[in-house]
User: Fold this.
Amino acid sequence: MSYDVVVIGSGPGGYVGAIRCAQLGLKTAIIEKYNTLGGTCLNVGCIPSKALLDSSEHFHNATHTFTEHGIEATGLKINLPQMIKRKNDVVDQTCKGVEFLMKKNKIDVFTGLGSFVDANNILITKADGSTEQITTSKVVIATGSKPITPAAMNYDKVRVITSTEALQIEKLPKSMVIIGAGVIGLELGSVFARLGTKVDVIEFQDRILPGMDNDCAKELTRSLKKLGMTFHFSNKVTGVKGTKTAATVTFEPVSGGDAQEIKTDYCLIAIGRKPYTEGLGLEKVGIQLDERGRIAVDAHLQTNVAGIYAIGDVIKGAMLAHKAEEEGVFIAESIAGQKPHIDYNLIPGVVYTWPEVSAVGKTEEELKAANIPYKSGKFPFKALGRARASMDTDGMVKVLAHAETDELLGVHMVGPRVADVIMEAVALMEFKATAEDMARICHPHPTYTEAVKEAALAATDNRALHI
Ligand code: FAD
Ligand code: NAI
Assistant:
């Protein structure tokens, strides 16, 4: 078989890239080593974690806010196997959707491990050991990432686990220690804390979500503490030991001091992910990696070997599904001779805790480091009628604009449904709008989006109306 493009890996980078290639008239194949398409995102990432976040949020509301709403519900119970089954059904439907899209776009799907024979020939090794070889003009590597699991943490997939196993737990743990207060630690920590598990988070830094806006991080920390999560900041884990029924986590202050030990039902390792290049046979074609083991690419996402490209988690940049998707489209359009563009500054980041956190553009810390003069406006959700109506008053919106030109430079939010609200900021920043532009747009009342208008007003001559 001979193709214009072969994509290795069917995550959001790979499958979206393959669809765009096919739309542009390129004969395309996609290779996936697992039996289901969709990669980390659909199978063990974005989709299943959001399904469990939604289920656990319903339970938390039913047990914590219903009474105040005037709803008396008694005898509430968690049926965790059913919660996991619903999540698995959502995953299944979503993965089947990708299968359908491959057929619709006449993309050939090969199941097996893809590896380079040379720059134009790819070997597919199936689970039963049989092989098949295909020929192609261009290759897109979209093999994604895997969790980082240091040897001292003794990852055993039983009691010392990563997000992949945490998404399958069917008996509610009494306790869980999470290593890392990043996105996975906080999202999955929220799921279990809402269901009643005692959650302890051990974090190397002195705060949650390093790299995101500090005020948002502080607000979310307060909310997660209210939820019952305990944080051990500025601590490093020195060892984890698992048995068949429990795990023991040893940690000590980063600045030195006495070690502590927690015995727990599960230890969840959530300290970041690493690019996945194993088994690709990169050495056969001499593809170079960067200093962090990621596939090195140029501004056109091409590797050092002409005609071989890489996208998504396996290269530099944010490990996000929508970043991978943008790169999938970019590469397809580049191969087809177009001149696409991605503004990496405008890739939004979202944390699906409650309240949610979202951000686009620069943080105050980044603006200070780059000596860019800026002004800032903030508006708290507790001053918003919509937020009081839904009892979601934790959080705020912060708008950062250039001190002289008023151009929007960054927007950071923590609050109800801000995962969706952030899109207004992304769209306006794409069009290089100012804080004044944002403030003058009519926002529907009562909605959470009014906090954006008010924060923009606050950034523009301090003229917020409702505070
Ligand atoms: P992947 O999705 O990792 O897909 C790569 C695919 O390549 C895999 O299916 C793999 O099996 C396959 N593969 C690897 N090597 C080979 C080979 N040699 N041959 C054949 N196939 C191969 N991001 C968000 O934007 N929003 C979220 O809410 C979000 N939630 C997440 C929650 C969790 C728990 C996790 C773990 C991640 C989450 N992410 C989220 C991150 C997101 O999943 C990744 O950024 C995204 O999946 C990266 O896409 P990708 O296409 O680069 O790679
Ligand atoms: P992360 O990079 O978000 O967070 C890792 C955290 O672990 C950091 O706070 C770091 O300081 C801490 N840490 C590192 N080593 C440590 C150690 N030895 N001891 C204690 N703390 C340590 O990584 P995470 O949460 O594993 O997520 C991986 C990737 O998946 C992220 O890059 C994220 O982009 C993506 N993801 C995105 C989601 C979203 O968009 N909503 C949801 C989940 C994951």
About this structure: The first strand starts at residue 2 and ends at 8. The pocket of NAI (ligand 2) is lined by residues 179-185, 187, 202-205, 210, 236-237, 270-273, 318-320, 350-352 (CB under 6 Å).
